[in-house]
């Protein structure tokens, strides 16, 4: 019984130990890399917003024609 409990408790301990090792080995991005990533994310947001706007712009009149909106 004690062995089963020990096995169950070993899983979170091992996960935590692996996570701490990963954090310690990883490094923060430098300023240039951070700006580059931020710009890429910003451009992605703008593109997705533009696509959503265009789809909505087309959908509203198309929906009015198909449904015969009031």
From TrEMBL:
Signal peptide range: none
Keywords: Endoplasmic reticulum, Membrane, Protein transport, Translocation, Transmembrane, Transmembrane helix, Transport
A cellular component term, taken from the record's GO annotations: endoplasmic reticulum membrane
Gene Ontology molecular functions: protein transmembrane transporter activity
Subcellular location, principal: endoplasmic reticulum
UniProt keyword annotation of Magnesium present: no
Family: Belongs to the SecE/SEC61-gamma family.
Protein's UniProt name: SecE/sec61-gamma protein
Species this protein is from: Lasiosphaeria hispida
């Amino acid at each position: 019984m004690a062995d089963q409990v020990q096995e169950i408790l070993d899983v979170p301990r091992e996960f935590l130990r692996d996570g701490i090792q990963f954090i310690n080995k990883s490094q923060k991005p430098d300023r240039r890399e951070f700006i580059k990533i931020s710009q890429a994310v910003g451009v992605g947001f703008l593109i997705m917003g533009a696509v959503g706007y265009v789809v909505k712009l087309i959908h509203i009149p198309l929906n009015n024609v198909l449904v015969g909106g009031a």
